[in-house]
Structures are given as C-alpha cells and as structure tokens.
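User: Earlier you gave me the apo prediction for this protein. Now I'd like the version with zinc ion bound, so I can compare the two side by side. Same sequence as before, with the ligand SMILES added.
Assistant: Got it. Here's the input I'm using:
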Amino acid sequence: MNNIKKYFLSIFIILFLLSFTASLFAQDTLSIYFFDVGQGDSSIIIAPDNKVVMIDSGPDESLILKYLQNLEISQIDLLIATHAHADHITGMNKIIAKYKPKAFIDPGIPHTTATYQRMITAIDKYNINYYEGISRKINLGSLSLTILPPATPLIKGSELNNNSVVVRLDYKDFSCLFTGDIEKEREGQLLAESRGNLNVDILKIAHHGSSSSSSPLFIKSVGPKIAVICCGQGNKYGHPHQETISLLQSLGIEIYRTDLSGTILIKTDGIDYQIFTEKESIRAPPVVKTETKTTETQEYKYAASKKSEVFHYIYCSYVKKIKQEELILFKTREEAIASGRRPCKKCKP
Ligand SMILES: [Zn+2]
Ligand SMILES: [Zn+2]
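And here is the structure of the complex with zinc ion:
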C-alpha cells in the first residue's frame, strides 16, 4: 500500500471511530434510570434537551433524594405517581418541595395514609399543576408520553394497583412501557383499549414481578426485548414470582432486576439502546451490554383456539375464553390464514 492510500485509510479509521464514539455520547441520548430503591418502584427519564420526567419515588425518602442529587437533577418537568401505595410515593412531598415539578399526574384515587396526604398537601402548598390521570398525549421536547389512565369504571379488585397510571414513552423508534402495579385484569383491558397496539422495546414489569400481573397474553402482545423488574432483595412477597420469570424466559425476553443488578440505566439514541447495570450479578448480564434492535418483532396480534376454525385479534372478547393450553398466537394475519382459519365475525381481524 502506498503512503497516500495509508494516509486515507488511517483518516477513514479515525473518522469511523470518532463517529462511533460520537453516536454513543451524542447530544441526542435519552437516559432512563430504574433506581434500586429496594422493594418499590422509581424511575427517571432524562431527555437530550434536559426535560426530566420522574415516575414514582420508591419507599425510601432519603435514598431517592440522594439519587436525584447524585444525578444533579435541577428540575422536574413532569412528576407521575402511578398509584398511592407507599412503595411508589414515599418522599414525594420532599421531591415536590425541592424541585417544584412543572406538572404532576396521579390516578386521582385518594388514599388514607399519611404518605399520600403529605403528597397531596405538597401539591396544594406549592401550587403544582395537577393533572388527574386521564387519557392524554404529552409532547415534552423530543419525548412523547402517552398517559393511559385507570379504566372507567375503576376496577374494584385490588383497586389501587389495578388503577395505576400507565405510561408509554416514545423517543424516535424507541419505546418503553411503565406499568405501575397493574394486575392481570387491567392488563387485559389495556390490550383491548389499545387494540393490541402496545408493542414496546422495554417493559417495566408490573407489580414487581408478581404472578398476579404479567398474563401470558399481555406479555406476548407487548412483546418486549427487555423486561425490567424493580424489587427488593429478599422481599417478603417473594417478588419476582417464579411464574413471571419462567414466562419471560420461555419467550426469550431478557430480564434485568434491580434486586440483583442494582440501578439499571438504559441509554438510547432513539434507534439502538444500551443497558448498564450498577452491580454485576450472577443472573444479570455483564455490566455493560449493547442491545441492537432488530426489525424482527415478537409481537403477537392474532389468536385462535386449537379447537376452532376462527381467528381473532388478541383483544377480542372471545380470546379471553380460550383455555391457556388451547391458545395459539400469530404474528401476522397471513400466518393466521395459512393455519386454515377464517377471521372472526365480531372483531374482524
Ligand atoms: Zn408496588
Ligand atoms: Zn401497589
């Protein structure tokens, strides 16, 4: 190789490396932290234009304030309390007092605890814009948030959990769903309300991995590549339950757990994403891991019973009646047709 060629080759390599590094640390990187708060939930989304959205505050006031301080958070654009349980809203009053968020959302379902009362008192005292959790799209700079509010009428069983505010985050091609503590009943409704269009890259598993949440149909339909479970080491509820873990594993969904890995950080440029974990652990993957999105999707949109000649959208009410062992799922309409079935007359897939 002559010198000129060598010269151009080295320039090329330098440019390539520069662009690679730049893409990792570019200004357009969005970060999501799933904090290790023990047995509870707290996460924060930091957008490239420094818009900050915080969802829940966990069970430990001093811990969450320390995390926010360490991250040098100076303002919060939107603060969301998914529901009024103490493992999600402890210290909200202090966060409100210190950061005076520009807006606050909760399901609007009162609770009798002092923790809840303190949160609501702080909202009033600091005159925070209060938005009751109703269906809405919020565009915050480059972020798009979809607020999926409690069902009307409210679900009576496990009322606070099931009526959690659910949040979908979209940033360019990247998406993440924050499910609070919803249980199977609400998951089923969400599938129906979204007409099966809930597919995201990353799913914050509902209710700390409890088996009362994460129905196979919901998980298959949402079809995440990555599942994040926020729970405390050795918690008294046995979260995450083996049933949930086995389901996720059987679907090839990679699991990250705050009890094993500490705080989990996801960084994305809106196309690819990388996952960083605070601690190395036996079951969690290495500390730094690159996930490259593929176009292949795991999303299932259609369902049928092994015993029937009809196929449905997965949210069709007939699907609920199919026994788990008789349920088959299809990713595409063509696959369903190819199985020799005809479309349901009710949901018209
Ligand atoms: Zn909880
Ligand atoms: Zn709860």
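For your comparison, keep in mind: Residues 83, 85, 160-161, 181 surround zinc ion (ligand 2) (CB under 6 Å).
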